[in-house]
Structures are given as structure tokens and as C-alpha cells.
Amino acid sequence: MTYTLYIGNKRYSSWSMRPWVLLKALNIPFDEKLVFFGSDLASQRTEFLRFSPSAKVPCLIDDSSSAAIFDSLAIIEYIAEAYPAVWPRDKLARAFARCAAAEMHSGFGGIRTDCSMNVALRIQLGPRSEALQRDIDRLTELFDEGIGKFGGPWLAGKEFTAADAFYAPIASRCKTFGIELDGEAGRYLDRLFDHPAVQQWVDEGITEPGIVARIEADSIRGRKVLKNLGEQMMLDFLGL
After folding, report:
1. Given 85, 100, 133, which residue is the final one in a domain?
2. Domain count of the chain?
3. Which residues form the GST N-terminal domain (predicted)?
4. Which helix (H) or strand (E) holds 69?
5. 66 vs 53: CA distance, rounded Å
6. What is the pLDDT of residues 27-72, one digit of tens each?
7. CA of 92: how far to CAs of 20, 86, 113, 156, 193, in Å?
């Protein structure tokens, strides 16, 4: 069984990051098709409709049947049919992991709104909105619960699963905006960010072309950019 995974810019696409990180972390073979977001949304939609019925990413194509799975959580469940390691083996841990992934899939609007994903920038956040602080508090509670119940080092036990992949973009957003979680939750978030699959995504996002002005502006929103890692890497390469 072979898969083709269509993704958007690694710099920006949190939805694409989740199944990509999971496939990499579990060594599940797949072909990557990177399709850049465009400056014109109508043209982007036309381009994305060529491979995704929803005109959105990610979209997984099962090469054996040409089936298109065009939702990140549905992609995870589809892969789990062939690769049970996507979810924890323990029944209670598996239920918790599914709950955590579903909560991320449909919730955390505060951090999505205030902290757009941009792996290449470090931005001074400024005052936190009430919605953002509620999300930070909930993330801390959720991570503490998972580590406390199942012993870590990952959210639902010893093995990296879909639950961790679903929170990988949160680890990236927190790095971008300087958000730190307390205690065990913070240590888990650091481990997640340092996972090789997450680091590969971030590194490739920092160096990829295809910067989109409208998405950059949404990330910054007039806030102070403390560092542009893409520019820094170029300076380091040139020895400047």
C-alpha cells in the first residue's frame, strides 16, 4: 500500500503538518506533493481542486485505489486501518488519544486566531487575549493529564501516536510566539518540538520558497518580529 500526501507550505500549514509528522514518525512510506499557497485565493482554489475535493490541504491519495481522503483526522483514521500503531494499544490510552486529537481538530480557536503558524519567525506576542489564555490553560491541563495517566514521555504513553502529531503545530506556534507552559506540560511540549519528524518539518519550512505576503501579514499583525530564522540561516551560510 502506498500513499501520496498533498500538503501546503511547511512554513504555514498546521493542518498539513499533522499527518506528515505522523507518517514520518512511524516510518510509513509516502510520496510528498508540496503545493504552495497562492496570493490569489480563487486561483489557489482552482489549483487545489485538481487533487482535493475540498480544495484544501492536506489530502491523502491511496495510490492502490485512487481514493482521496481530504480531512486531517479522517486521514489519520484511514492510515490506522493499515497501521494500528497510529493509536495506542491500550484501550484507555487509545480513547484518551482520540479525545485529545478530536479536541485539537475542532477547538483551540484562541491560539489559532492569535498565533498563526509560521515556523520561520519569532514574534513578540504582547498581551494575551482571554481566549488565548483559556487555550493555554487547557493545553496545560490536557498535557498534564495525559502524562500523569499514561506515564509519558508522549501524550498517551511510551509511543509517539496521532495524539502527539496533532499537537505538533501547537509546539511550533508556542516557539514562534514565546509561549511557555508550566511543569510537565512544558517539558512535554519541548520534547514534541524536538522530535526528529517535527524538526524536519520546521527546518524545511524555514528554508522553503513560496513566502506569501498575506499569510506573513496575518502572522505578524503589526507585532515585533524578533527573528527571521530563514534570513538568519542565509547569513550563517554566507558567514556574515
Report:
1. 85
2. 2
3. 1-87
4. strand 67-69
5. 13
6. 999 999 999 999 999 999 999 999 999 999 999 999 999 999 999 9
7. 25, 15, 32, 9, 25
Q: Which residue from 142, 124, 125 is spatially nearest to 192, judged by alpha carbons? A: 142
Q: Is 47 a domain residue? A: yes
Do 117 and 21 fall within a single domain?
no
- pLDDT for 174: 98
Taking residues 22-30, report their average pLDDT.
98
Closest C-alpha to 60, from 39, 86, 38, 40: 86
For residues 156 and 104, state if they share a domain: yes
Which domain-ending residue is among 85, 109, 141? 85
Expressed as residue numbers, the domain containing 121 is 88-200
Q: pLDDT-derived band of residue 1, with 50, 70 and 90 as boundaries?
A: low
pLDDT greater than 50 at residue 237: no
Cβ atoms < 10 Å from Cβ of 235: 11
Report the CATH number at residue 106.
1.20.1050.10
Q: Do 95 and 76 share a structural domain? A: no
Smallest Cα–Cα separation from 37: which of 58, 62, 19, 64? 58
Reading the block at residue 207, the C-alpha cell is 528554508
pLDDT in tens, 111-144: 999 999 999 999 999 999 999 999 999 999 999 9
Q: How far is Cα 2 from Cα 53, in angstroms, rounded to an integer?
A: 20
Rounded CA gap, 120 and 175, in Å? 10
